[in-house]
Design a protein that fits this description.
single chain; about 220 residues; three-stranded mixed β-sheet
Length: about 220
Amino acid sequence: MALACAERSDLADLLVALEPEKWDAPSLCSEWRVRDVVAHMFSYDPLSKGDLVRRFLAGRLNGDRVNALGVAVYGRCTIDELLALVKEHIQPRGLAAGFGGRIALIDGLIHHQDIRRALGLPREVPAERLRRALQFTPTAPPIHARKRIRGLSFVATDLDWRMGTGLSVEGPAEAVLMAIAGRPASLPELSGPGVETLAARLTTPTCPPGRSAISSATPRSA
């Protein structure tokens, strides 16, 4: 949980410094602008258990539609309103606090990089956050990584971390994490005989659905 709070705090610092036009710039997530990624990340924290159930029912228990509903609610907020939402929820709540804060950590770290990579704003992610994220991401329910990583082994060349058996995929821990999470943008930073297989599995949108799906979703709850 402490690592998740630190990651959210670092993201808040980035967002405060962003020029207004950058909020409408594309992210690594298919069809999601920076503001949409932020809206998605923090749309679950304010929900009570009842609100969460209603949102999942409104999304017909489909994760993509449920996410779209959250973005539809908060994606129309002003920059100041989104910043206030982020600052109010540095400490994860509700669904984001699941698995002892691991959901917030991997969601925060991956989406933070979705924003930074797309804007050309690299950073050095603290090693302990990467290690914990790599430990959980392959089996984390929101990531759906099993089909992506099946039959492959992964090695972080800058951390003492490896996972799996099969054709090897090697590279910096952050790039390995982003690939496991379905981001093709990290593929040029990876090497090994398993990269070709992995690349073939990263051809679908990384954060479906985007704004086109949001426009057809009618939120019935927060």
